[in-house]
Amino acid sequence: MNEREVVVRIEGLHKSFGHLHVVRGVDMEVRRGEVVVIFGRSGSGKSTVLRCVNFIEDPSEGTIEVAGIRLQGGHRTRRKRAQIRQLRLHVGMVFQQFNLFPNMTVLENVMVAPLLAKRGTEDEIRKRAMDLLDRVGLSDKPAEHPIRLSGGQQQRVAIARALAMQPDVMLFDEPTSALDPELTGEVLSVMKSLATDLHMTMMVVTHEMGFAREVADRMAFFHEGRILEEGPPSEIVSGAEHPQTRAFLDAVL
Fold this sequence. Notes:
Blueprint: E1 6-17, E2 20-31, E3 35-40, H1 46-53, E4 61-66, E5 69-72, H2 78-88, E6 91-94, H3 106-116, H4 122-135, H5 151-163, E7 169-173, H6 181-197, E8 202-205, H7 209-215, E9 218-223, E10 226-231, H8 233-239, H9 243-252
Parallel strand pairs: 3-8, 3-9, 6-7, 7-8
Antiparallel strand pairs: 1-2, 1-4, 4-5, 9-10
Helix pairs in contact: 3-4, 3-5, 4-5, 5-6
């Protein structure tokens, strides 16, 4: 039994959009330093689960706990809105699209959130931002604007920006799906270094099975809003038990 601290705990998660029931009773724990890859067909609910962890989407039912901050699904109250703001301080999120501020330089993009949150002096935040740009291989680009960068470079800036808040968990929602194949590798390489060098806690929605086999501690296959099968990559990729999992893996591998 892994005794590491649980960073993310999801219990009885349901999410509906009108009459469409997208997530149907998901339970999941992610422990400190663990990398969990979530995969499945489009519309299976995997990205919605990630967005519920950060309360970009409000869970219809169930409980989300991040770094000891525990919130119930349902409508937002004033007190709950304040709790969500606190929870988000512990979560970094990287999206399919890079969502960088086009009017800011690369360095300003990375510094903006910790400056607003007063996570140190401006000099301290600038130094940390430059260290992060160095980590993602962009130490020569701090004065550039996003429009002058490739898609892979923009996504690496987005990763540095999410890391700048020193989160307890990083959420990646199909971070390479908008990239050309030759740019995908550079982003996956940065993500791998976060796992292997920094032991970052990560939840990753992706179809990149090579990354999953090499980096993930655990894989969870989503089907019709539920976790159909989960386990270590060696077991899932080579010996998936459920026909739906096997059919999906046969299609993508």
